[in-house]
Amino acid sequence: MSDHPRLTERQRQILETIREFCDETGYPPTLRQIGEVVGISSTSVVSYNLDVLQRKGFLMRDPDVSRGLKLIDETLDDQGGSENVTMVPLLGFIAAGEPLPIPDADYENQELVPVPEELVGDANQVYALRVRGISMIDALINDGDLVLMQYQQNAENGDMVAAWLNDEKATTLKQIFWDKGTNLVRLQPANPNMAPIYVHPANLQIQGRLIGVIRRI
Amino acid sequence: MSDHPRLTERQRQILETIREFCDETGYPPTLRQIGEVVGISSTSVVSYNLDVLQRKGFLMRDPDVSRGLKLIDETLDDQGGSENVTMVPLLGFIAAGEPLPIPDADYENQELVPVPEELVGDANQVYALRVRGISMIDALINDGDLVLMQYQQNAENGDMVAAWLNDEKATTLKQIFWDKGTNLVRLQPANPNMAPIYVHPANLQIQGRLIGVIRRI
DNA sequence: CTTGACATAGAACATTTGTTCACATATAAT
DNA sequence: ATTATATGTGAACAAATGTTCTATGTCAAG
User: Fold this and answer.
1) pLDDT of A152-195, one tens digit each?
2) What is the number of H-type helices and E-type strands within chain A?
3) Smallest Cα distance from A6 to chain B, Å
């Protein structure tokens, strides 16, 4: 994304304000709305700045037309708003009795599900799993929920991870803490009403990190 | 591809006019401009038709805002079918001690959040709330979660609803059942480990129906 | 110091634009 | 026939919104 060096800070603010306003509302702002955001109390000054921006080629103004603005820039208006969304492959199911599926390089044939971009952030190898069974309830997750996983085999203190317990032959979703004193791992349910469990690190295998949950009622 | 069968010819004309105008100018048309194109001489009738279109869910209007129109894209550009996303207004918070915000107010300043269309379906008055506090844990919902609510004051048997309890002065999210025998209402937590509560119908006020949960870890 | 381009404030003004209301017209249901 | 609903006209109105004008302050160049 190129920052336009020919613009003053004020003018960049104004452009950004218009762009955001259009994204949110679907139509351009008024002079007064722009002024309010960027801190200009006079409509004439906003108008003045818009004229400057037009002269520099960053937008079009239609005189005497309320909200008669059109951004010239590369980022075009999307009247759909379906922008802040990422497609994530749905790899299968997560159930208590089975290990997690390993994310395959073969993303082509994978079913893709749309998720809000905030849920993914800049995470890297993200995939979705459908929850089967009610055994994840201590993670506030229910049958049918869609969980977003980040593929990784190690974890940091406090991460919510999917862990395979060798003894129980089960996958569980819990917050993980390394207890230096006892040399045990504490698995803390997300539901604070429930008690944590402690396991030997050798008995546990991290299969991924939970980064989001989507539930349809 | 069939155009929308629920629309009259007039309404389809108007939608098309708005779409073309936006494409050409970058901003929505006025009532008079729409009327001129589709052949309606009175702005009040254009306004009337826009209200109809809004009620049918094809666009958003911001009252008293010139050119305050936004088309709702439900359309044909997606071949995969799994691409679709809907924007819903984020109206505020849901906490145990407060009634829910009423979703009527000015959509002007409302933040919009994208949600997968499967979560919304064809529900009508949908809005999102951020969960504050951990008091909804019996509904498998945690602090910080985003809940999708459908605004309604009645409920059907088995619906997951947000109910205001007069006695407790608290909002709770539970599945609702009408017990014919005792003439009481049973509120069943989503977490089956927890016990239901029974209340008199007079002590309870339904504030909306829960239709989805989104959690960011 | 003076000048002039630039940026801003504030107010008065004019235009654009949505709303309201009183009143038609057609069509379908009662 | 009568009523109800959807749609339309037209005019008056009020609110939203861009324009114009005067005045102020800054800052670099002469």
Assistant:
1) 888 888 888 888 888 888 888 888 998 877 889 998 888 777 78
2) 4, 11
3) 24
